[in-house]
């Protein structure tokens, strides 16, 4: 069972994207943990567009405007951002979640602990969880995946969230898929550290290039089926 399923076993909408890479699961996990969405110009623009109403209200009220030079997972779950780290299985999966009225110009987040997240059911809120996950491939290499789950605490809130997601969900999918493809390109360009073996005189020497080949396997992207549904209106 995945960690995200433990924190949100029931959801109104689920989207899963993943890509294959020839890199080892260890290298893939290190890349997933280090990814910085702020490095991609159009993703920075999309986030700036989403935060424009909130920042405009903050300026009008004389409040400080939140800005960050990075957008890594550790930055996203930093105190004051509304998102929290729900759980982590090192080398395998990390889960982030949030509860709030996401459809408002300035999101009204609810402060909860990971232990309270699943059971939270106060009417009037949406719930969101997403993960990054790395799994080994049978043919070698690894799968890089991102799964998103959303729901709401009552039917009226789900209708509001669904209208909001009709637009924001499109940008969310663009960000997730483009970042996965970027990570795959990055990993498949990089060469793993060259293994070394003992020579006849006790000296180390690089292994032959033939021993380092990947076997000519074809990399394929796979996106599991998505399912969507929701509380009855």
Walkthrough of the structure:
By secondary structure, this protein is of the alpha+beta class. It is built from seven helices and ten strands. The strands form two sheets. Strands 1, 2, 3, 4, 5, 6, 9 and 10 form an eight-stranded antiparallel sheet that branches. It has a two-stranded antiparallel sheet with strand order 7-8. A hairpin with a 6-residue loop joins strand 3 and strand 4. The radius of gyration is 21 Å and the shape is globular. The two termini are 30 Å apart.
Beta-strand residue fraction: 15-25%
Task: Count up the helices.
Answer: 7
Structural class: alpha+beta
- Give the overall average pLDDT: 78
Per DSSP E runs of 2 or more residues, the count of β-strands stands at 10
Described by the principal axes of the CA atoms, the overall outline is globular
Cα-atom Rg, whole angstroms? 21 Å
Uncertain stretches of 5 or more adjacent residues: 197-233
Terminus-to-terminus distance = 30 Å
Q: Order of SSEs, N→C?
A: HEHHHEEEHEEHEEHEE
Helix content: 25-40%
Largest sheet: 8 strands, antiparallel
Please outline the helices and strands.
Layout (H helix, E strand, L loop, with lengths): L2 H5 L5 E9 L3 H10 L6 H20 L12 H4 L7 E6 L3 E9 L6 E2 L4 H4 L8 E11 L5 E11 L2 H35 L6 E3 L5 E3 L2 H4 L8 E2 L4 E2 L5
Antiparallel strand pairs: 1-6, 1-9, 1-10, 2-3, 3-4, 3-5, 5-6, 7-8
Q: Descriptors for this entry?
A:
single chain, 233 residues, alpha+beta, eight-stranded antiparallel beta sheet, two-stranded antiparallel sheet, 35% helix, disordered C terminus
